[in-house]
Amino acid sequence: MSQAEQVKFPTGVYFIPSLGIIKSSNATQALNQSEQLILSYLLEHNQRPATKQDLIEAGWPDREVTEASLFQVIRSLRVKLQESNKGEVIETIPRLGYQICTFDIQTFDMADLNPLEKIKQKSKQLKYFLLGMLVLFCAILAITKYVDEPSVDDLPFESRLTSLDSNQVLFIGEDEDVLTDLTSKVTTLYQSYNALHSPNHLENRRIFIYKNNDLYSVAWCKQDQGNYCIKGTELSYSMRLEEWPTFQNYILSNKGELIDTPKIQTDFTRQPAAKVYLNYIDDSVIQSKVIHYFISNEPNNEFKYSSMSFIASKHQDLHHVLSIKAANYQAILTPDIPNVIARVKIMPEMFHWAYQPTGTKGLNKGSLALENERHEQVVYEGRKVVVNHLLYHHNHLSLIFSANAGLYWVHSNKQQDVLFKPTVD
Which regions of the protein are recorded as binding DNA (predicted)? Predict the structure, then answer.
């Protein structure tokens, strides 16, 4: 299709391939990359049904995704094409696939764009330009070597592994006094829970709890018969010390424990190698953060990665981009450290605010999420090597302990990942 063509569908909606947008009488929406590729493929191959495999290969070239990703895109396109009845535009052909039979190709004059759409077009071009510059910047940084490596920030800590009936609990803190305090708090909470609910409901959990001078951090998952974490049951929460009663009430209320898939607002549609989901209990409006990691394997069990952080408020589940980072990391086995699988040595290279201003005036001081991000800024811009610790690893799931940020789960998009290669070799 030429730069001056648009496609009109029976619903009165237009698709402009050169701009990657859907237009109707009352709205203009941008399509993500997979939506554009799949819709274009259906239009270009309208003479026959397109199989699911055809569309997966078209929508995600050089990547492996499941049919669930395709179904999600088809559902999204049906909504954006304003189908009032399923199949009005995208027909489902049983046992064959999908097909678009009815549409009209019309001449499109770029001058017909109203001012708002012209601004959107320029904004989209600017975003892709900035993203390209960012990729170039990361590539330059990736070949930069440390001349004088800063000292490693490897804070000492103690750990204590114990059991509460069928539940396994790991306490982490700076000394034995902290571990004793954590043991008392968790035991009291466990007893209170059993007094309110069936004891059988809270069983076969793997629980981790950490305390420093500023926060509590708690992570857990349900275990299967092999004592491995069950996918979809892993959660983590961080809170200020004074918010422990709030967290305790949350647990005692017996709320659901399955993680939801967050809605991410970004034009960057490449599938991340791994994701992190963080939840916060504080008095700010920022309730959760999601991090997408894009990782490449290097020699000697070293990895390069860039990451994008997103935040959402308590009033909406749409996550907005917060920051972009780049670093190298290396996982080193630690048979000499009790309850720790590996030390994760992180060598920062770049930090960039994508949403939150760097000054303290714009920082919501009540937000743990933003305070942790500001700490990351200082570490990354100072090129200070830090050390985190790997506490759990099996197939797609890993648990990391950070002395500053606390505990968080890392979800790999591959069942057998190489995020922490020494632990799976």
Answer: 4-102
Contact 312, 288 (CB under 8 A): yes
- Torsion over CA of 264, 421, 388 and 341, rounded to 10 degrees? 120
Instruction: Read off the tokens for 236.
Output: 């983590």
Task: Say if residue 145 is exposed, middle or buried (CB neighbours under 10 Å; 0-12, 13-18, 19+).
Answer: exposed
The rounded distance, in Å, linking the Cα atoms of 36 and 54 is 15
Residue whose C-alpha is closest to residue 293's, from 271, 311, 321, 269: 271
Query: DSSP states of 199-223 as a string?
Result: GGGS-SEEEEEEE-SSEEEEEEEEB
Q: List the one residue out of 29, 10, 16, 7 whose CA is nearest residue 85.
A: 10
Please spell the DSSP secondary structure of 344-401, one letter per residue: EEEEEEEEEESSS-SSGGGS-TT-HHHHHHHHHHHHHHTT--EEEEEEEEETTEEEEE
Rg (CA), the chain: 25
DSSP secondary structure, 301-316, as one string: TEEEEEEEEEEEETT-
Q: Which helix (H) or strand (E) holds 91?
A: strand 91-93
342: closest CA among 392, 379, 415, 306?
392
State the pLDDT confidence band at 132, using cuts at 50, 70 and 90.
low
Percent of the chain with pLDDT over 70: 76
pLDDT, greater one: 125 or 286: 286
Domains recognised in the chain with CATH numbers? 5-113 (1.10.10.10), 148-425 (no CATH)
Task: Determine the average pLDDT of the residues in 6-24.
Answer: 87
